[in-house]
Amino acid sequence: MACPTIGFFPTFYLSFPPLPVNSQLEITSIRPSGDLSGGNQVEIWVEGYVLDDNGEQLPPEVIASGYFTISNGPLADMTRLTFTGNKFSFPIKFSMTNNSLILMWRHERYSAEYTLTPQVVFAGELEPITWSMTNPVTLIRGTLYDAEGKVIIPSRLLAGGEAKGAITIHSDNSFSLPVIPNNRGLYSYFILETTDGDTVLARARSEGSRISGNILLLNSTIKGPLENGKVYCSLTGSARRTPAAAGELYIQEPVTRREITDAIQGEVNFREDWFNVQLALEPGTYEVVWLGDFDLMTATFTVVPEMEASFVLPNTALDDMQGLPRLIGTIVDTEGKPIVGDALLQARGDIAAWIMSVKNGTIDHRVPSQLPAGEYELTLIHDGYKARPVSISIERRAAPAYVRYTIGQTAYDANGVIKHLTAAPMLYQSHTVIPVRALDAIGVVSNWDNDTRTATFVFGSNKVELVLNSPIAKVNGKEVTMPIPAFSSNGRTMAPFRFVGESLGLMVHWNWETQEVTLTER
Length: 522
Description:
The chain is mainly beta. Helix content is 2%, strand content 53%. It starts with 20 loop residues before the first strand and ends with a strand.
């Protein structure tokens, strides 16, 4: 009888990560930080400890190796998280429309949560603050409630204005407090302290009479270098009626009236009624505000980045075939691309100057005939770009000889004199061809040998020989392959214009728009 088979089965071990140990957060302090510029948000500071399951404070290194999150609202800048011994402290952005937040701390071994009910209550808008030039001290009046609708009675003002007396509690549980309000026309924020030690945030509008006017700006469009998305620039203006130093200067967005506190770089410089301020702003439109004791002046200005540009052009503007110096080049940005938009170039010399226009960085300008030769300095005039000035030389010389032909026309221009050919130039296989005798007008000596069917061209020390219908030509005795051979049309020998001209040492220029081809002495 066969013996039963005994099987051996491997043993599997399952490993699970340890479950987080429940711990708890002990919050010892919740207080406003004074950052009240966020509309319906206020920054509060939270301080406390992390406790283990036995209620003991965890050591600092354990706390620091964890991280905080929040369920209903953003944490503020966590680079401001600090530890003092076992105690942590960091800011939270608390929305005044939220009643509570869940603060969570996570660690590889511990997990803790805390329902955060900040003792900062927004009780709606208080009654508007009314004030005037003669009596800026006025009453702020209103009633504060907590989240459950219970009346909160404040005991003293902590921030937001200058208190001029004690808080008065009225029979309807409202209160009033004499203050000097924020007279910028924005919301005025107040942090008050209650009798039981809680802090309360409230706000009220400022309404009153003031003298209004406009700041006189030296430039409504200011430019500067662009660094990290901001334009660093200088703004100069005048408060006009009163010394600028007697008031307060700040920058804000023109629509929302939100003050940009980090726009001003350094101190504002005053000189009698003039001010000068260094700014760092993103490109856009802004408002500068001068606030005196009894008047408010504003002006709108635009910030434009001033990007670097450079010239790409020859050092010398030489005479072209019309006898006028011609300057050809481009103006490019730091990436080597032509600048965008219209610009001007100012050329200034010792005894003369002129201005030329530039379109999308392209320079193609004939120097005015009355402009004397000499050294000139070119300066770029453009709202968005700046370039270091460059020097060029203007040279004048006698106009070189030239002939200009038009495709399909027998009339041609020879040094300003209109003459006629026996046959019109034509396009053949995308090449311009002309009668053999057409080049005589610029001084080329041409000859046709009917026996050998050969056309010969001589200019200076250069000689070109063409055989009818042959692609091989001789240039100064050496055989060269032409793009197309010479051929006969209506009894006239037609030669490839560019090949012959350049082989003779002349300059050939083709204008596609006008269908003109020009031959010029070098």
